[in-house]
Prior knowledge:
Helices cover 34% and strands 35% of the residues. The chain is of the alpha+beta class. It folds into two domains: 6-39, no CATH class; 48-138, 2-Layer Sandwich (GMP Synthetase, Chain A, domain 3), CATH 3.30.300.20. A hairpin with a 5-residue loop joins strand 2 (18-23) and strand 3. This is OsmC family peroxiredoxin. One of its GO terms (biological process) is response to oxidative stress.
Amino acid sequence: MTDRKATTVWTGTLFEGSGETTFDSSGIGTYPVSWPSRAEEANGKTSPEELIAGAHSACYSMAFSNMLAKNDTPAERLEVSAVVTFVPGTGITKSAITVVGTVPGIDEAKFQELAADAKANCPVSQALSVEITLDAKLS
């Protein structure tokens, strides 16, 4: 078992207040958050959705990399992005994964099969109860 910790200190109301999220386990830093940066433009601040997008893209990269290696077609490079959609008043509605892979020795059908398998079995995908889409391409 592994635990990771982040702490947010918030002051003020939802709409006028702001906070700072600190990544305690890694020590990578403290980042500002606010409602306007969540519901409108980022303006140099992060949001829960951006943090989830980062977690999803990293987790998917690891899962897909592992599946490709187990297929004896290890990736030279995977570029993975995740876009998490937030609708004020509704919540998080979607995570859209895009992956471009440089994978010698694999055909398109197997690449797509393993990409879809990684989407379904990545622990962050399994933790999200929203629509998850995938756009996978060989470079």
